[in-house]
Specification:
The complex is a heterodimer of chains A (205) and B (308). Chain A is mainly α and 205 residues long. Chain A has 10 helices and no strands. By secondary structure, chain B is an alpha+beta fold. The chains are: A mainly alpha (205), B alpha+beta (308).
C-alpha cells in the first residue's frame, strides 16, 4: 500500500504543489500587502527559511528511507533538492535586486567583508553544479559513483547554510541551533548506517 | 529569524473602532491640539506644545509603527511584540519609577507625578534602528533633563543608568532572547541632560502602546534605537559607566555610545544606508542621524570609531 502511494504519479504531483505553497503564500502576502513594514527583510527571511528547510528535507530522505525501509522515498529527493535551489535563488535575487539594487561594488564589499554573506554565496554557488547534474542523463554521464560523490557536497552546503544563519541573527540563536541539531541528527543516521555496512562487509569477507 | 505574519491582528483589536477612527481623523488633521474634541478616551493625551526640535519629514503610518517593533521580552520577531505585549504593561498601576543614586533626594515617583513634571510636548523625531531601517515618530513627552534637575544630581553623577520593567511571565527569558533581562541602558550625564533626550509617555496622540514601551521610555534620536530604553522603572545616577544590555551581548557590535554613524560599520553590515519604512529604496544615513548640529559638540575630540 505505502509502496503503491509512493510510486504513484499523483503523490509526486501533490508534493510538487505542496513545495510551491511557500512561494504562492509569499505572492499572496504581497498581493494583500501583508509583507510587514519591511517587505524586503520579510521576503529575504522567508525565502531563506524555506531554503534551509528544503535542504533539511532533502537530507532527511535517506535517513527516512533507511529507518522505515522505504527505498521508494528516494524518488522525491531530486525534487526537494531542486526546490532548495529554487528558494536559495529567490533568496539571493532578493538580496541582489532589492537590498543591493544591482550595486556590484557594494555587493563585492559585502561578500569580502561579511563572513555570513560570504558563506551564503558559497552555499549558493555549490548548489549550482548539483542542480545542473541533477538529471538522469548526468548520473549516466558521470557514472553513479562519481555522481554520488559530487552530490555529497549537499552535506557541506546544508552545514554552511546553518552557519550562515547562525552568524546573521543578532542574539536569538534558537532556530539556527535547531537546524544545526537536525543536521547533526541526519548525519548521524548516515554515519551509523555506514559503520554497520562496513562491519557487515568485514564479516562477509 | 522567522517572522510570523498575523493577518488576523489589526490595531482595532487594541483600540475600539470608534476611537480608532477618531485617531485617524485626528492624524489627518495633523495636530495634537485638535485632539481635544476627541479626548474622551483615557488613552489619549494632548500635547499642547509643538516642539521646535520636530522634523517636518513624513510621519510613519501608525499601523506600521505598532506592528514592527523590537522588544525582545515579547519575542525576537518584528511582529511578536505587537501580538504579545498588549495588555501586559499599560494595565500595571501604580507604575513607579525609582530615581536613585547620586542625587540629593532619591525618591520613588508614580507615573502621574512624572507626567506633571513638565508640560507635554509633541516632538517628531527620526528613529534609526541598528538594523538599517528607520521611521519617523511623533513622540509626546518632555526633556529628561527637567526630571533630573528636580533631583539635584551630586557632583559624582557622571552617568545615568536606566532599567526596564521585566516580568518572568513575559514571552522570552534571557536564555531564549540571547540578551540579559531586565534590559538596562545608560547615557553619559551630558547626553542625558541634552534637551533632545526625551522622556516619552505617548506617541501618535495617545499613551504609548505596550509594544512601544508603555508607559514611559526614552527617545534619544541621534543614537541607534536600542539606546532608547522602554518601560522604565529605574533611573540611577552613577559615577562609573554603567553596563548596557546590547553592549554586554557583543561589545564589538554595540558600543556604549551607539551614536548613529554611517562611517562606522556594524561588523556584520554597513551602516551607510537605511530604509525609511515602508519605502523600498534605501537612503543615506546621516551622522548623528541628522542631529549633528545639536549634539556633535558632546563628542568633540573623541575618536568616534573607538567610542562607537
Amino acid at each position: 500500500m505505502i509502496k503503491k502511494i509512493l510510486l504513484s504519479g499523483w503523490t509526486r504531483a501533490l508534493l510538487f504543489v505542496l513545495c510551491l505553497v511557500p512561494f504562492f503564500d509569499l505572492g499572496w502576502d504581497a498581493y494583500t500587502q501583508n509583507l510587514t513594514a519591511n517587505p524586503v527583510e520579510y521576503i529575504t527571511h522567508k525565502t531563506g527559511d524555506w531554503t534551509i528547510r528544503f535542504l533539511m528535507i532533502t537530507l532527511s530522505v535517506t535517513p527516512l528511507r533507511l529507518l522505515f525501509h522505504q527505498p521508494q522515498l528516494v524518488r522525491f529527493r531530486r525534487m526537494f533538492g531542486l526546490f532548495a535551489f529554487f528558494y536559495a535563488t529567490l533568496h539571493f535575487t532578493t538580496w541582489f535586486c532589492l537590498d543591493k539594487f544591482f550595486d556590484f561594488q557594494e555587493m563585492g564589499k559585502d561578500i569580502l567583508k561579511r563572513p555570513f554573506i560570504t558563506l551564503g554565496l558559497a552555499a549558493l554557488l555549490m548548489l549550482i553544479p548539483l542542480a545542473v547534474t541533477s538529471t538522469n542523463g548526468w548520473v549516466r554521464r558521470l557514472g553513479f559513483k562519481r555522481w554520488q560523490k559530487l552530490h555529497r557536497l549537499v552535506y557541506v552546503i546544508a552545514l554552511v547554510g546553518v552557519i550562515h544563519y547562525y552568524w546573521l541573527v543578532k542574539s536569538d540563536v534558537r532556530l539556527p541551533l535547531m537546524y544545526g541539531a537536525i543536521w547533526v541528527a541526519l548525519m548521524s543516521v548516515r554515519a551509523v548506517e555506514r559503520s554497520r555496512n562496513r562491519r557487515q562487509a568485514a564479516v562477509s569477507v | 529569524m522567522i517572522i510570523r505574519k498575523s493577518p488576523e491582528f489589526r490595531y482595532s483589536d487594541l483600540t475600539p473602532k470608534e476611537q480608532y477612527l477618531n485617531r485617524r481623523r485626528f492624524l489627518a488633521a495633523g495636530s495634537a491640539v485638535l485632539a481635544a474634541p476627541f479626548a474622551r478616551a483615557d488613552n489619549k493625551i494632548a500635547a499642547a506644545i509643538k516642539s521646535p526640535f520636530s522634523t517636518t519629514e513624513k510621519i510613519t503610518p501608525i499601523d506600521l509603527a505598532t506592528h514592527y517593533n523590537n522588544y525582545y521580552e515579547f519575542g525576537t520577531g518584528k511582529e511578536d511584540p505587537g501580538k504579545n505585549a498588549p495588555g501586559k504593561l499599560d494595565k500595571i498601576r501604580p507604575w513607579t519609577i525609582s530615581v536613585e543614586g547620586e542625587v540629593t533626594k532619591p525618591r520613588i515617583l508614580d507615573l502621574d507625578q512624572v507626567m506633571k513634571i513638565a508640560p507635554l510636548e509633541e516632538r517628531i523625531y527620526r528613529h534609526r534602528c541598528v538594523e538599517r531601517w528607520s521611521m519617523v515618530f511623533p513622540w509626546i513627552g518632555f526633556s529628561l533633563s527637567t526630571l533630573l534637575k528636580q533631583f539635584t544630581p551630586t557632583s559624582r553623577a557622571k552617568y545615568v543608568a536606566f532599567q526596564s520593567y521585566y516580568n518572568s511571565k513575559f514571552e522570552l527569558g534571557s536564555f531564549s532572547a540571547g540578551i540579559d533581562f531586565p534590559y538596562v541602558e545608560g547615557l553619559r550625564m551630558d547626553e542625558a541632560m541634552h534637551p533632545l533626550t526625551l522622556l516619552a509617555v505617548g506617541i501618535y496622540g495617545e499613551m504609548l502602546p505596550d509594544q512601544m514601551g508603555a508607559p514611559i521610555r526614552l527617545a534619544v534620536p541621534w543614537k541607534y534605537g536600542y539606546k532608547s530604553i522602554k518601560s522604565i522603572v529605574k533611573i540611577k545616577l552613577v559615577e562609573k559607566q554603567p553596563p548596557t544590555t546590547w553592549n554586554k551581548e557583543s561589545a564589538e557590535e554595540y558600543g556604549f555610545y551607539s551614536n548613529v554613524n554611517p562611517n562606522v560599520d556594524h561588523p556584520r553590515w554597513s551602516q551607510k544606508k537605511e530604509r525609511r519604512l515602508p519605502e523600498l529604496f534605501p537612503r543615506d544615513t546621516l551622522i548623528f542621524n541628522g542631529y549633528g548640529d545639536q549634539v556633535a559638540g558632546l563628542y568633540a575630540g573623541m575618536d568616534l570609531r573607538k567610542y562607537h
